[in-house]
Amino acid sequence: MSEASNRRPLKIRDQRIMNRIAAWLSQRQVTPNQISVLSVLFAAAGGAALIAAGYSSGGLWSLWLVLAALMIQCRLLCNLFDGMVAMEGGKQTPAGELFNDVPDRIADPLLIVACGFALPEYPSAMWLAWLGALLAVMTAYIRVLGVSLGLPADFRGPMAKQQRMALLTLACLASALEFLWDGNGQILWVALIVLVAGSALTCVRRLLSAYQQLNQGA
User: Fold this and answer.
1) pLDDT at position 217, please?
2) Is 9 inside a domain boundary?
3) Residue 5's pLDDT is what?
4) Out of 119, 136, 181, 217, which residue is the most buried by the measure of CB atoms under 10 Å away?
5) Cα gap 113→197, rounded to integer Å
6) d(CA 142, CA 36)
7) 12 and 18 in contact (C-beta within 8 Å)?
8) At 41, which CATH number?
9) Residue 122 falls inside a structural domain
10) Which residues of the chain have a pLDDT value below 70?
11) Nearest to 10 by CA among 97, 103, 75, 80
């Protein structure tokens, strides 16, 4: 099975500006593995911003959430460019797959668990956040397990990595505007519920697909 077939399909990868940035990075002393590690640093910064939001109110609450949304997108850009620099830039390394996967398993929990700290007024937020982080890791585990059994990589959702991060980004930005209607974190709390439910459904769909494919191939 080719590496390309196990690559997450992303339309943004075809955009000219993204290709130019990836080409620019490829021509510099920048490795895909460095970009992958940088994604964890952005996720840690986003998580720190979310935790800081939990100890803030008013304008500071909004500021931290906007910063968290920005860090989430920077993390995703790193996830995009590490693969493009590796594949299109011809900088693949034997250990590249480790750097491609392990940082994601760290970055997801950093951001999702931090959402629980951002909502101290919601007792359920913390366990929702931990459950969401666990399910996020499980979605990836099922995909990788399928590949190890000879199946094509399954990136189906409804709450794959891109959808999870898009949900958190939108929730952070919308929550930053809650002062307009005197809100107090309801949007981020609801986003956690959606993330948990969507991630659980994603796990079930990937497991069922793997089961069916393995049975058909047996």
Assistant:
1) 76
2) no
3) 60
4) 136
5) 16
6) 21
7) yes
8) 1.20.120.1760
9) yes
10) 1-6, 218
11) 80
